[in-house]
Design a protein that fits this description.
Layout lengths: L2 E5 L8 E5 L6 E5 L13 H4 L4 E6 L14 H15 L4 E6 L1 H12 L4 E7 L8 H14 L2 H11 L2 H6 L1 H12 L3 H13 L13 E6 L7 H10 L3 E6 L6 H4 L1 H14 L13 H5 L17 E3 L15 H14 L1 H10 L5 H15 L7 H15 L2 H13 L4 H15 L1 H19 L4
Parallel strand pairs: 3-4, 3-5, 5-6, 6-7, 7-8
Antiparallel strand pairs: 1-2, 2-4, 8-9
Length: 441
């Protein structure tokens, strides 16, 4: 077996990677979930290297990888492609778990000529809501990664597995604790912005969608949405597995991956590509001998009904830009509540605010969002607008201000806006910060 662990030679676009398997085999890439390292795939490697040259990588700040945060899923996909370009790998199969699945979907959408076959594990076209991931970023910024690390086994494994496998449970906790907090927060922001629901029909490669039957993070509903939207997709449900199915049910997951990539490997659209084109474009050899026995209690389900289209309000460029920024800063829940309360009398005012406050002013490049939050908090203290101060304190936390920095803004405001105004502001901000930065049990 040929093995290699390295970091690509670029500067801020570094990826820590590892090869396992023979050099002349087709390349299969494994992408990990948020908070994990490539070791989550260790129990798949012995079987996969019989047919593939397996490439694993760590996300920035994970597993000791260089801590150069990525602002979007697309940026991380670009870093992966840059690393593969350095190595001369042009075409590959790709299997990704959770965040790693988002990278796989991004690659299949933006670089379809590079992807020969795809497997999406514990994945979703949109992971929860943007508010949930921005809230997680606020928790990490305020408390560090320890609260997230301690709760990881509950999200990743079934209770029975976590109780029976204390060593693996402890490994999961330590893996999250050693992740760079800034890179973790950036990854949360990337997932908050990730939404490919409207684009699934453009994924043109054979796709296996795999989900644990007990996954409470990205469950069967999200998996069926993927299968319904991707033209050539199959669904496999693994019993007795939660979010990290490759760790909890390694044999079942490995068997499904081997069968999928052995039989669904699309030929390269252009056989004249340079570099390692022969390696990357050659489909894997079929498994010799009798077909592997099916995994008991693993259900493979065909395409399901297409979900309803996501509604959206058409409008001018300013309105569309404004509603996007407004949701990113204030959160979906707040914006949905405000817009739902609008009627014929107040609707025009909400459109005015969206177009000009959010679409024009908050969208200008002259100040970053942290600076705009500082200005906004000060102005609200000066005007005594305590209701708006509450949700803009939440916005300031989402925009990257720490509680200590918000305190400094309010102290500055006390000097120039008056102590009574700042006294009221501190009470409001204190309540919001406690609520937003207290980890949920």
């Amino acid at each position: 077996m040929w093995e290699r662990e390295r970091v690509s030679k670029t500067t801020t676009e570094t990826l820590q990677y590892r090869f396992d398997g023979p050099e002349d085999a087709p390349v299969l890439i494994l992408g990990s979930s948020l908070g994990t390292t490539w070791h989550m795939w260790d129990r798949q490697i012995p079987e996969l290297v019989k047919q593939w040259r397996v490439f694993r990588f760590d996300m920035p700040g994970h597993g000791g990888a260089p801590a150069h945060p990525c602002g979007s899923v697309g940026e991380l996909a670009d870093r992966l492609l840059a690393t593969l370009d350095e190595l001369g790998v042009h075409r590959f199969g790709y299997a990704g778990c959770a965040f790693g699945g988002a990278i796989g979907a991004e690659l299949a959408l933006r670089h379809p000529h590079r992807v020969a076959s795809l497997a999406l594990i514990a994945a979703s076209p949109r992971f929860g809501t943007a508010d949930e991931f921005r809230q997680r970023g606020v928790i990490v910024r305020s408390n560090g990664l320890d609260p997230i690390a301690r709760s990881a086994p509950d999200r990743w494994f079934t209770p029975g597995f976590a109780a029976a496998q204390p060593a693996i449970t402890d490994w999961a906790v330590q893996m999250v604790r050693t992740t760079d907090p800034g890179c973790y927060i950036a990854a949360c922001e990337a997932l908050a912005a990730f939404d490919v629901r409207a684009e699934l029909g453009r994924i043109g490669v054979p796709t296996l969608v795999l989900v644990g039957s007990e996954d409470q993070v990205t469950g069967q509903g999200e998996a069926r949405t993927l299968v319904a939207g991707i033209p050539d997709a199959r669904l496999a449900v693994v019993p007795g597995a939660s979010h990290l199915a490759p760790v909890e049910q390694p044999a079942a997951v490995t068997d499904l991956l081997v069968r999928h990539f052995s039989t669904a490997w699309q030929a390269a659209p252009d056989a004249t590509m340079g570099g390692q084109s022969a390696l990357a474009a050659t489909p894997p050899k079929p498994v010799l001998g009798p077909s592997p026995a099916p995994v008991s209690a693993v259900a493979e389900i065909g395409p399901v009904e297409q979900p309803e289209a996501v509604p959206g309000k058409a409008g001018t460029d300013l309105y569309d830009a404004g509603i996007k920024v407004r949701r990113e800063v204030l959160g979906d829940a707040h914006v949905d509540r405000v817009l739902a309360a609008a009627d014929d009398f107040s609707g025009d005012f909400q459109e005015l605010v969206t177009r000009y406050a959010w679409g024009e002013i908050w969208n200008r490049p002259g100040l970053d969002r942290r600076s705009r939050s500082c200005v906004t908090l000060t102005a609200l203290v000066a005007g005594g607008h305590l209701d708006e101060l509450a949700f803009h304190t939440r916005a300031a936390l989402r925009n990257g201000l720490t509680p200590a920095e918000i305190k400094e803004v309010l102290l500055q405001a006390a000097v120039y806006c008056g102590v009574p105004a700042a006294n009221s502001a501190f009470k409001v901000a204190q309540a919001v910060i406690r609520e937003e930065t207290t980890p949920q049990e």
